[in-house]
Amino acid sequence: LKSYGVKDPLHSWFASFLEGRLQTVKYNNRLSLPKPITSGVIQGSVLGPLLFIIYINDIINVIKHGRPYLYADDLKMVYSYTPD
């Protein structure tokens, strides 16, 4: 976010929005124990799509091998391999 000019206090607000979150899984009417969310952006939130776009925007610049295909909220990587 800082590379896009987002400064405090807004930068700190985004950090606090993303940090310390927990997730649970419900299966067969049973709920798992809460586990920390350590990566990604919050799904189902108003800010989720914006944060995802910011997060993934520079991926083309850091990938050294393979070809990324980006569309909306999806990413596919294509690699070729020639065995020796």
From TrEMBL:
Keyword hit for Ribosomal protein: no
The organism's place on the tree of life at top rank: Eukaryota
A single MF term (Gene Ontology): RNA-directed DNA polymerase activity
Transmembrane domains' residue ranges: 37-57
InterPro entries found in the cross-reference section: RT_dom (IPR000477)
Keywords: Membrane, Nucleotidyltransferase, RNA-directed DNA polymerase, Transferase, Transmembrane, Transmembrane helix
Every Reverse transcriptase domain range: 1-84
Protein name: Reverse transcriptase SjR1
Organism annotation: Schistosoma japonicum (Blood fluke)
